[in-house]
Amino acid sequence: VFKRFVEIGRVAFISFGPHAGKLVAIVDVIDQNRALVDGPCSGVRRQAMPFKCMQLTDFVLKFPHSARQKCVRLAWEKENINEKWAATRWAKKIEAREKKAKMTDFDRYKVMKAKKMRNRIINHEMKKLEKMASKKGKKPKLEKAPKSEKAPKSEKAPKPAKAQKAQK
Amino acid sequence: MAGEKAAAEKKPAEKKPSQKKAGEKKPSQKEGGEKKKKVKRHHASRNPVLARGIGRYSRSAMYARKALYKRKYTAPETKIEKKKKEKPRATIIKPVGGDKNGGSRVVKIRKMPRYYPTEDVPRKLLSHGKKPFCQHKRRLRASITPGTVLILLTGRHRGKRVVFLKQLDTGLLLVTGPLTINRVPLRRAHQKFVIATSTKVDISGVKIPKHLTDAYFKKKRLRKPKHQEGEIFDTEKEKYELTEQRKTDQKAVDSQILARIKKVPQLRGYLRSTFCLSNGVYPHKLVF
């Protein structure tokens, strides 16, 4: 049922408070509500932090309990947590949300145009498939469906990439 | 009296240093040359002191003793006084029509008042800093710079995105569509009713003609009542008429701006579109 546990070395994401948005490693447990936490590579000093503001990630580091900051840092850099984190979907969603909030009026216009173009292409292909499906029987439809579905998917990729580049 | 007292005290003090000065001045004079005027030697006080603050002679006696009747100085005439001598014209000669009227009349320029109120107007208290509109300080938001794309919020062009050119003397913003993009001509817009976006067009080299001022854009109104009660509302200019000058000015400005707009991809389409709010879009959360 539970997959991520609070343990020594668990990397957690701080959701609110003064260090919102940073990653920390749990170094020790103080009592039921607080943990001793340290984030040498993310700019968080070693401190007590309530569990409520932490959200557990999938990463676990290896170091003994109450290890000093140097050890935590070594473990962190060995595992390359910063890069792994940036590659997770979680971090990407956060980044996308931030970018969306920063969009200017012009960027919104560009995104609208890109979405419109993309949808047009997709709908065009769909209409083609539907037309073929309605004309012929089921067998030829199965052959043609995977081929034409790949075409809109490859076109999907450049459109949002273009939108992200335009935003930057 | 105070002045005299100061003078009287000054002079016995000056007695010794004045003699010293005289002694000093003479040799310097001789050294300097004999062309200089004679330095005036100051006389000692002609009003002996009886007690501190009390002189022997009265004001009038001192006047005579100091021979002030022959020492009257006037301040040198300043330029202001020289100018004041030029009195403004009091009357003017105006031609008069009709026979036997003698061609012209002498008319006063500044006439006596034709009405005096029964009660005097009370004196107003002093106020400061109440300037007329023409002297007001004009401010411009920091986010609005030449070339900024603005969103008009009021008027017949509401929702349209428009390029800002410059701020006019009354504080209104001179703005253009350009006309071929969104049908907004060279127009004035009010700073308060405009959203400044962060999109800027580079207008560094664009030359805006100097005759585009507030007077150029001001609405013209006919104000000659012809005493025809039925047609009063029609004679006033309701219909705006395009003049050739406006067209040429529009072309002159727009041609320069269009070239710069075409350099930025998708900007032309952006200016053509209008701004609108839809579900889930909150202006206070939008970054413009």
Automatic annotation (TrEMBL), chain A:
UniProt GO molecular function: RNA binding; structural constituent of ribosome
Residue ranges of every copy of the Large ribosomal subunit protein eL14 domain listed in the record: 46-119
Keyword vocabulary terms for this entry: Ribonucleoprotein, Ribosomal protein
Comp. bias (Basic and acidic residues): 123-133, 140-158
GO cellular component, one term: cytosolic large ribosomal subunit
InterPro entries attached to this UniProt entry: Rib_uL2_dom2 (IPR014722), Ribosomal_eL14 (IPR039660), Ribosomal_eL14_dom (IPR002784), Translation_prot_SH3-like_sf (IPR008991)
UniProt-annotated stretches for the region Disordered: 123-168
A Pfam family hit: Ribosomal_L14e
Superkingdom of source: Eukaryota
CDD domains in UniProt: eL14
GO BP term, example: ribosomal large subunit biogenesis
Family: Belongs to the eukaryotic ribosomal protein eL14 family.
This protein's name: Large ribosomal subunit protein eL14
TrEMBL record, chain B:
Main location per the UniProt record: cytoplasm
Ranges of biased composition (kind: Basic and acidic residues): 1-34
Residues annotated as transmembrane: none
Subcellular compartments: Cytoplasm, Cytosol; Endoplasmic reticulum
Database matches in PROSITE patterns: RIBOSOMAL_L6E (PS01170)
Family matches, as InterPro entries: 60S_ribosomal_eL6, Rib_uL2_dom2, Ribosomal_eL6_CS, Ribosomal_eL6_KOW, Ribosomal_uL6_N, Translation_prot_SH3-like_sf
Record-level GO cellular component terms: cytosolic large ribosomal subunit; endoplasmic reticulum
Ranges of Basic residues composition bias in the record: 35-45
A GO molecular-function descriptor: structural constituent of ribosome
Pfam family of the protein (one): Ribosomal_L6e
Alphabetical GO biological process terms: cytoplasmic translation; ribosomal large subunit assembly
Region annotation (Disordered) ranges: 1-53
UniProt keywords, alphabetically: Cytoplasm, Endoplasmic reticulum, Isopeptide bond, Phosphoprotein, Ribonucleoprotein, Ribosomal protein, Ubl conjugation
Chain ranges of the Large ribosomal subunit protein uL6 N-terminal domain: 36-95
Assembly, per entry: Component of the large ribosomal subunit. May bind IPO9 with low affinity.
Family membership: Belongs to the eukaryotic ribosomal protein eL6 family.
Function: Component of the large ribosomal subunit. The ribosome is a large ribonucleoprotein complex responsible for the synthesis of proteins in the cell.
Protein name as it appears in the record: 60S ribosomal protein L6
